[in-house]
Amino acid sequence: MDLCLETFGATNDPALLLIGGASSSMDWWDTEFCERLAAPGRFVIRYDHRDTGQSPGSPPGEPRYTSADLATDPLRILDSLGIDRAHFVGLSMGGGIAQLLAALHGDRVRTLTLIATAPAGARTGSEALPPLNPPASPPAPDWHDRAAVIDYLVADQRAHGGTPFGEERVRRLAGKVVDRTRDMAASAVNHSLAAGNTPSFRLADIAAPTLVMHGTADPLFPPAYGAALAAEIPGARLVPLDGMGHEYPPPRLWDVVTAEIIRHTGDR
Fold first, then answer.
1. Which phi and psi (to 5°) does residue 80 adopt?
2. If you ran DSSP here, which 8-state letter would residue 249 be given?
3. What's the pTM?
4. 42 vs 74: CA distance, rounded Å
5. What is the CATH number of the domain that holds 159?
6. Across all residues in the chain, what is the average pLDDT?
7. Which one of 64, 90, 207, 238 is most buried, counting C-beta atoms within 10 A?
8. Are 212 and 239 a contacting pair, CB within 8 Å?
């Protein structure tokens, strides 16, 4: 499997791997955001999951890979670049992947940053989390109609995003996503259909220094999910992101988010 990736910064700086959410190509990690992370001395890596962007995939509805493949692709990326250990930053599904790798492959994870995600491993606490109440997705478009697909992506981002919603920027990114993606229909459905059991783990087994950042307006994973992560992972620190929804950090929060990540990954 060949995966498409892009890097920012000097190769001799500490590596920082960005792991995106389900059905997301690397484009949702905004280029300027990546450049800001690289500027203080980080070798930033972003990549297209299978069936997103320029990474190859499978026919729509027929993923020829497993969820375990998606979860271990970050290790393959590090291997391909000759990197033993990296700082992992995971968002949504990418946060679940990062948790699993930190628990089961801790020798590869220098630090862990979790954004807009939920506990993926077993918890020791018994307190119930709020039920999930995901926003309704817009009707699926004709995946061959560029304008309709862009409208669909913008509507979906608006339903999950916080306020204010930067439609002009999101529409620009959505256009880039559509233009770079080999098969939008496959990208939209195949991750949720990927079979296979990923290994189980306990959040308490995560030893990497952990930073949790969670939007106060996340409609998919309410703030209690971020608080639970910070409580369950030993020594984790929680930073609420005011007004952010279930989304990639918007520009108004870049100063906060990049500063926290640089601080967290410094001298480690």
1. -65, -25
2. P
3. 0.97
4. 17
5. 3.40.50.1820
6. 96
7. 90
8. yes
Q: Which of 238, 237, 232, 199 minimizes the C-alpha distance to 124?
A: 232
Amino acid making up residue 107: D
Three-class DSSP category at 71: helix
Is residue 2 within 8 Å of 227, Cβ to Cβ?
no
Total domains present in the chain: 1
Q: How confident is the model at residue 268 (pLDDT cuts 50, 70, 90)?
A: confident
Whole-number pLDDT of residue 133:
84
Mean pLDDT in residue range 62-91: 97
Q: What is the β-pairing status of strands 43-47 and 15-19? A: parallel
Q: What are the angstrom distances between the C-alpha of 220 and each of 52, 81, 162, 214? A: 22, 34, 11, 11
Residue 155 domain boundaries:
5-265
Q: Which of 225, 263, 259, 217 is nearest to 241 (CA)?
A: 217
Q: How far apart are CA 56 and CA 4, in angstroms?
A: 9
Is 68 within 8 Å of 4 (Cβ atoms)? Answer: no
Please give the Cα distance from 244 to 253 (Å, whole number): 8
DSSP assignments along 105-140, one per residue? -GGGEEEEEEES----SB-S--PPPPPP-PPPPPPP
CB-based contact 118:229 (threshold 8 Å): yes
Position 1 scores a pLDDT of 79
| pLDDT tens per residue, range 209-252 | 999 999 999 999 999 999 999 999 999 999 999 999 999 999 99
Q: DSSP secondary-structure letter at 259?
A: H
Cα 259 to Cα 237: distance, rounded to the nearest angstrom = 14
